[in-house]
Amino acid sequence: EVQLVESGGGLVQPGGSLRLSCAASGFTFSSYEMNWVRQAPGKGLEWVSYISSSGSTIYYADSVKGRFTISRDNAKNSLYLQMNSLRAEDTAVYYCARTFLYGSGSWTHDAFDIWGQGTMVTVSS
Amino acid sequence: DIQMTQSPSSLSASVGDRVTITCRASQSISSYLNWYQQKPGKAPKLLIYAASSLQSGVPSRFSGSGSGTDFTLTISSLQPEDFATYYCQQSYSTPDSFGQGTKLEIK
């Protein structure tokens, strides 16, 4: 079964750090681009970060740039999100999501076809 | 950044109804538009990609259309399991961005 399982969420004080993990199974993890997407309580979805299959290309949302770091370990079938200088507005459920590519050549675009169950991050004193 | 706006924000309908949700992009995104369904406490599920392509395993009562800036998601005959929140997402340019969601409720 194709599956993503997040872990590492919890309660942290403003200014603190947390590292999220996402364990992949049931597919060749090293062949897929991956993402983190978050959802604040009662709010919509916000894309956070992207990493290419090799880890050589990385993007961040402006809201987390300079504070969050995405990484992956293809040998361990794992995706990570290191979150530093956390703020109250980072409080959310964090999902890892697999990229599904469609189109061809320079017109290749993406959707998110497999999602984990999410891990809750609460930033509060 | 591209802004995505969905309408309506909420919608009440009955089992068997035909329902349409609209998504508008702040600039042309060609057909690089995806739709997701999310039920309470669950992760989103991909329904449609490239504006009109049905994801594997998704019932055929779901359909999508549109290109450029205006898109629609249609459910031809609502089933009890379709009551959920629906999000559109553009993948034309980074950062990918989502609409604010449309909550579909039982009338």
Explain how this protein is built.
The complex is a heterodimer of chains A (125) and B (107). Chain A contains no helices and 11 strands. Chain A is mostly beta strands. In chain A, the strands form 2 sheets. In chain A, strands 2, 4, 5, 6, 9, 10 and 11 form a 7-stranded mixed beta sheet that branches. In chain A, strands 1-3-8-7 form a 4-stranded antiparallel beta sheet, with no helix packed on it. Chain B has strands at 4-7, 10-13, 19-25, 33-38, 45-49, 53-54, 62-67, 70-75, 85-90, 97-98, 102-106. In chain B, β5 (45-49) and β6 (53-54) form a beta hairpin. Chain B is globular, with a radius of gyration of 13 Å. Chains A and B meet through β5, β9 and β10 of A and β4, β5 and β10 of B.
The total count of strands of chain A amounts to 11
Q: Bin the strand percentage of chain B.
A: over 45%
- List the chains of the largest interface with their residue counts: A-B, 22 and 25 residues
Q: Beta-strand level of the residues of chain A, as a percent range?
A: over 45%
Number of helices of chain B: 0
Which oligomeric state applies?
heterodimer
**Regions of chain A with pLDDT < 50 over 5+ consecutive residues?**
none
Share of helical residues of chain A: under 10%
Element order of chain A: H for helix, E for strand: EEEEEEEEEEE
Q: What structural category do the secondary elements of chain A indicate? A: mainly beta
Distance N terminus to C terminus of chain B?
Answer: 36 Å
Number of helices of chain A: 0
Average pLDDT of chain A, to the nearest integer? 97
Brief synopsis:
The complex is a heterodimer of chains A (125) and B (107). Chain A is mainly β and 125 residues long.
Write the layout of secondary structure elements.
The complex is a heterodimer of chains A (125) and B (107).
Chain A: E1 3-7, E2 10-12, E3 18-25, E4 34-39, E5 45-51, E6 58-60, E7 68-73, E8 78-83, E9 92-102, E10 109-115, E11 119-123
Parallel strand pairs in A: 2-11
Antiparallel strand pairs in A: 1-3, 3-8, 4-5, 4-9, 5-6, 7-8, 9-10, 9-11
Chain B: E1 4-7, E2 10-13, E3 19-25, E4 33-38, E5 45-49, E6 53-54, E7 62-67, E8 70-75, E9 85-90, E10 97-98, E11 102-106
